[in-house]
Task: structure prediction
Amino acid sequence: STFSSKELEINRDSKLALDLNEKLENQIEESLKFTANGITHKYFPDEFIFKLHSPIAPKYRRLDETCPGCGVKLKRSSPIFCEFCGKAVCKDCLQKARIFPQNVSKKGRCCCVCEGKFAIDLGFSKFKLELAELSNSEKGERPRRDRIVALERELQQAEKDLWKLADASERRIRKANDEIQLTKFKIEKMFAGMEFVQKDREEIVQGMREANFEMEKIERGIDELLEQNRNVDQELKRVEARNIDQEIREIKEIIKSDY
Result:
């Protein structure tokens, strides 16, 4: 059987729409992944964080060895928990408070991973709704195809925005690494200065020891001189005493001879 030009055009448009739809689904699947601080995460539309009315119960909290947002090792003494997923995170990965999805009057502390999932959910909820409407619609293939193409463009833009977010996260990691290297350099410089001061201190202490040793030598020399002076004085006194005795005897002899 043969087909009219109109039927061929409809078949061609239908095939194009199916191809675009498959491509769109693949792009959506890939766009469900996002990167935060160099760590890849995946968005699931039915996650419990989108159904919360209030902070997650303490019994569902989880403290791992590392932060899920950036991979840094966590301190177990004073953990900080995301009030949406319940996981412990570092203070840098804890974003500002956001409204609970099922209770607009209440806010909770949200980590960067949950924040990324909420950002994707906000963008893709509209796409999922419109795609569902298109699937159930009785409209012709051409407007359906045009709408799918328009949605594809919007998804591409959303993907670009996510890549920008990933690039910003990478820049943040590089900046943090630069700050760590600078801090390490300052610490090494400080320790080098301390070693230099320690060396100077040791030289000063050694100089003081040598000076004390010389002072002790001088003091011993002074003591020896004083002792010598005392001996000389005693000897002089003895000599003077002998001379006086001799003179007295001589005077006595003279006196005797005169009488």
